[in-house]
Specification:
The chain is of the alpha/beta class. Helices cover 40% and strands 14% of the residues. The strands form 4 sheets. It has a 7-stranded mixed β-sheet, sandwiched between helices. Strands 3, 11, 12, 13, 14 and 15 form a 6-stranded mixed β-sheet that branches. A two-stranded antiparallel ribbon has the order 1-2. The protein is globular.
């Protein structure tokens, strides 16, 4: 009987040793290399079931090819069909694929060792870890993490693996993961695998999530025992969870004031009403957008408080305070409990109401006023954040805005007083099970979920691993150096804008909010630079409408060298350069015209990637390079506006 030759061979250390029979296609060779490394990883981590090593390695390698193969995935899948006999319609992205007997036999023969016989596996649930990090990072979230099959970018314009070819100033929206954070996340996956093989998957993930909570407290709250942490798949999910916690412990009708809602996440008003804010929940189920998460959600009332006038100008702090004070007095007087979502740095850089007013209202009305801080942008002094928690104000944070962790990663820092009130209040309605896994909650609050559908959300946890890696390396830079670097970059950006007449910086960002001596690391510092776009034909200037702004935004993040003709080498290079900035935000121009703003944002990597540990300073040439890259972004926008003026088609 003739034995068919094996597709390839590999060593126990994960090296492909016989690849002559492999087609000379890069995707196939990517598969072979990743299969060999992954098989060796599972074996080294302590997997005794060699068949499980086979299946895990096959699934990881196939998914890895989907993301990294420069050729269409269908070509590599065709080879897998012919070489291993898998089904033509095998969907590895939907979960571990059951391999046919033919494939299992080929994989058995390919093993580099035969030391252990196959054992009856008690470890099949470990296939939850049989995905490459780039795939795990898009799991456990809603459709915002879904990838375009051609570009592998999500709705935010981000990729779940490093994208060094793109210039990135998008931290007001979201950023592609850095090579540093990606490596840390992969190390965490490997460590979790070894721990799960030793102790079981659920106990290992429980400890993993608890370590994440301790890391968040240590990095953000200085290690002080001021809060517990509820992990969540996004900032918007956090609003839903925080609202649910307050609602649970409230014995009065609840009126919610959301300050600056139109400068927060687009789903926040729905989430703050405990309504489904998208067509898909974080844990994968389809839901009816806009419908209540649970029956009691209909009982609340929501009031939106603006931070700007109809012309888009920022309202004075005392005006915002007066509006919030009046609304609170009115609703408390009617017998309601008022929940204030206070904004600390919006997507356009605004904040309100003042902390002084929040303290005044709490002093006057006690528990009839509850306060939650929206610090999702994380452009907040860490001392200020700790003060909020000491004052019993829960805080909503993310790791994916200023700190440039991958989207989506949210958390609610639950102050100790709130923990005590909520823990004694009963359980969250069953509808929250579509958004929350058991290990998302600290032990003190784990009883809040009634029969949760899922024990954990691995994608959310790994996104937080990556975010914490960025937070650590940012705070590794001394505070004085961080502040100098941010100030230097901020001043340089304003100067760059002055050189582009078709790019009109928003009035809020034209001048520094304070002198360097009076400005904190974040407080009082302009860190998001919103701007309008102007089309110019000769002496005539016309403000771009919202559709045109979005067109420029999308072209900016693409290689447009094949879309528009370049008249010289410089223009060709500009058109080819991918640039990712903050996505459009609907806004009113001071002239009264409805349009949208784009945003160039300062993120933590500007500082951490300019810092030299050896020299003990931010390297001038590295920060200059960051400034130069910002100039390239503005130059490409100016060039794209010319093509728009010439009648260039929108994407």
């Amino acid at each position: 009987m003739t034995v068919e030759p094996l597709p390839f061979a590999f060593s126990a250390t994960g090296e492909v040793t016989e690849a002559e029979r492999l087609p000379m296609r890069e995707g196939v060779r990517i598969f072979a290399g990743r299969y060999a490394r992954e098989w060796a990883l599972w074996r080294r981590a302590g997997c005794r079931d060699l068949a499980l090593c086979d299946v895990a390695a096959f699934n990881v390698a196939a998914i890895h090819c989907y993301y990294l193969d420069p050729l269409p995935w269908s070509e590599t899948r065709s080879w897998l069909v012919s070489a291993f006999g898998i089904a033509v319609d095998s969907d590895f992205l939907a979960g571990p694929v059951t391999l046919p007997a033919q494939a299992l036999e080929i994989l058995r023969r390919m093993r580099p060792e035969t030391g252990d016989a196959d054992v009856a596996s008690q470890e099949a649930d470990l296939l939850a870890l049989a995905s490459p990090v780039e795939h795990l990072l898009v799991q456990g979230g809603d459709s915002r993490l879904s990838l375009n099959s051609q570009t592998l970018l999500n709705g935010y314009g981000c990729r779940p693996f490093p994208r060094p070819e793109a210039i990135t100033f998008s931290s007001s929206t979201a950023s592609s993961i850095s090579a540093h954070a990606f490596g840390v996340a992969e190390q965490a996956r490997q460590a979790l695998l070894a721990e799960a093989l030793r102790d079981g998957l659920a106990p290992a993930v429980e400890k993993f999530a608890d370590r994440l909570r301790r890391d968040i407290i240590k990095q953000i709250c200085g290690g002080r025992a001021t809060a517990d942490v509820v992990l969540s798949s996004s900032g918007t999910d956090c609003f839903l969870i925080a609202q649910g916690l307050v609602h649970l412990s409230s014995g009065l009708p609840l009126v919610t004031l959301i300050v600056g809602a139109n400068e927060s996440g687009t789903g926040v008003p729905l989430a703050a009403q405990e309504r489904h804010f998208a067509a898909q929940a974080a844990l994968g189920g389809d839901v009816a957008k806009g419908e209540p998460v649970h029956a009691d959600a209909k009982a609340g009332e929501i009031v939106l408080v603006a931070l700007r006038d109809p012309a888009g100008r920022a309202l004075a702090a005392e005006v915002v305070d007066a509006e919030v004070r009046l609304l609170t007095e009115e609703h408390v007087g009617r017998g309601a409990q008022v929940l204030i979502h206070a904004m600390n740095h919006s997507k356009l850089g605004a904040s309100g109401p003042s902390t002084a007013l929040l303290l005044e209202l709490r002093e006057r009305f006690g528990d009839k006023v509850q306060i939650i801080i929206d610090a999702c942008q994380m452009r907040v002094e860490m001392s200020e954040l700790r003060d909020y928690l000491i004052r019993d104000f829960p805080v909503i944070i993310t790791g994916s805005k200023f700190f440039t962790g991958p989207p989506l990663s949210g958390a609610v820092l639950v102050s100790r007083g709130t923990v005590e009130r909520v823990a004694a209040a009963g359980r969250l309605p069953e509808g929250f099970n579509a958004y929350c896994a058991r290990f998302d909650f600290p032990e003190t609050l784990r009883g809040l979920l009634a029969d949760p559908r899922r024990g954990f959300n691995l994608g959310s946890y790994l996104r937080w691993v990556a975010a914490i890696a960025e937070i650590r390396r940012y705070f590794r830079v001394p505070a004085a150096a961080r502040k100098r670097g941010l100030e230097h970059f901020s001043r340089a950006i304003r100067k760059l804008f002055r050189g582009h007449e078709s790019i009109q910086l928003h009035a809020d960002a034209m001048e520094a909010t304070g002198s360097p001596a009076a400005t904190g690391e974040f407080k009082g510092r302009r860190m998001i630079f919103p701007f309008f776009l102007v089309r110019r034909r000769g002496e005539e200037a016309q403000l771009c409408d919202e559709a045109e702004v979005r067109a420029i935004y999308e072209w900016l993040n693409q290689d447009c060298s094949g879309r528009f003709p370049a008249t010289n080498a410089r223009d060709y290079r500009l058109l080819a350069q991918r640039c990712h900035i903050g996505q459009p935000v609907k806004a009113a121009h001071p002239s009264g015209v409805a349009t949208a703003l784009l945003r160039l944002s300062m993120g933590a990597r500007i500082i951490s990637e300019s810092w030299s540990e050896a020299a003990g300073r931010i390297e001038p040439e590295l920060i200059r390079d960051e400034i130069w890259q910002a100039g390239v972004v503005l130059d490409k926008i100016t060039l794209l506006l010319k093509y728009l003026d010439a009648g260039g088609r929108k994407p």
